[in-house]
Write a structure and sequence with these properties.
This protein has eight helices and no strands. The protein is globular. α1 (about 5-25) crosses α3 and α5 (about 110-125) crosses α7 (about 140-150). The protein is mainly alpha-helical and about 180 residues long.
Length: about 180
């Protein structure tokens, strides 16, 4: 196994987590991760080992997802959303499943653009600059989306922090849907 392959392998858990958050479907998420890894391997000559591999992979994943959504719209493929998709759970905390479910529902209350930024920055821990590179938008746009997302749903930041450190017993969510 070469250096590039071992570096890719280390990023798979983060890619899976982000893909599941984007697609809300385990099978589509796995397909998205596989497509991302295939594209990365095919284009590995473009990546420098000293550059930010994670940002490059997330950019590929973002573009693959956008292309897939556009293709579905163009071809008229209807994707059914099921509120019972398998939520990530924690084995040690019985309330972890509820916290994650509530966080997922809370994230569904904000726009797709804001959700992607909050997931990248809050959950994955990327910097504003890295998120701007991944999503191919200016840093000011990232800041604006984070601000608006947190303004509409301040509990998201707290819930993400609690889940990253230790699942909390508090519930998150919103009573109305906000789309900006």
């Amino acid at each position: 196994m070469n250096d590039f392959s071992s570096l890719l392998e280390k990023e798979i858990p983060r890619l899976r987590r982000y893909a599941r958050a984007l697609t809300h479907d385990v099978f589509r998420a796995d397909d998205l991760v596989q497509d991302t890894l295939l594209r990365a391997i095919a284009q590995q000559h473009r990546s420098r080992y000293d550059s930010n591999l994670r940002a490059w992979l997330f950019t590929i994943m973002h573009n693959q997802n956008v292309n897939g959504v556009r293709r579905s719209v163009r071809e008229g493929v209807a994707v059914e959303f099921d509120d019972k998709w398998p939520f990530p759970t924690t084995a040690t905390d019985p309330t972890g499943r509820l916290s994650l479910r509530d966080l997922d529902r809370a994230l569904a209350c904000i726009s797709e653009e804001q959700r992607r930024v909050i997931l990248l920055i809050g959950l994955e821990g990327t910097s504003y600059q890295e998120a701007a590179v991944i999503l191919e938008v200016p840093v000011g746009t990232i800041r604006s989306r984070v601000f608006r997302g947190r303004e509409l749903l301040p509990v998201v930041e707290i819930a993400v922090h609690q889940i990253r450190s230790a699942p909390a017993n508090s519930q998150t969510g919103c009573s109305t849907r906000h789309r900006a």
